[in-house]
Amino acid sequence: ASDRNRLVRDIEAGDFLLLRTEGGSPDVIPAIADGLLGHDAVRLRSMQREWARKLHDVVLERGFDSTLEGLVQFGCSAQNLRAWSAGLVIRPMSDVHFDAVLMICGMDETERDSFFQAMDSIRSAHIRAGNRIRMLLDAKLPSLDVAELTMSGVGQLALDDLDVRPLAVLRVEEAEDGTTQARATEIGMLRTHGGF
What we know:
Layout: E1 16-19, H1 29-37, H2 41-62, H3 64-72, H4 78-85, H5 95-104, H6 109-140, H7 146-152, E2 154-157, E3 167-171
Antiparallel strand pairs: 1-3, 2-3
Helix pairs in contact: 1-6, 2-3, 2-6, 5-6
């Protein structure tokens, strides 16, 4: 298919995926974003883990349902709370939701402002990293041998200007309908039938 940005549920047989399959998370954006953040990356990522850990601790202390009750009035859902307390996001997309989460974690206004600024810095770095990757991919994609990729189903694409391992180019052979349950630790991990 010709769409460059697709929802996972819209992926179909014959599509090609670009993924990082070696060296940790398959998502290369955080690594590039951390480079863009420079010496602040460690502090900012620590703050990212901190708010999620605090929320997780609140859920353990009060219970999931009780914690959710305190957040529902701000429009938060059970699905939101699960993702946020598992540390799967930089921060909630909604400022109202993020402020509510930080309040329920016992943070005062000064602390909340500090976390807003820190997470917005990370989010901005992620956007810049994505734009940089897009620019490099746009320059590299025309040189790929599509006929070879179609035959073999597997290839590699090196982004020489970035300090990252080559991306795997994988052809989707079959896409399942519906959704599959996954543990939080499995999110972002490639599942294959038969390997590559």
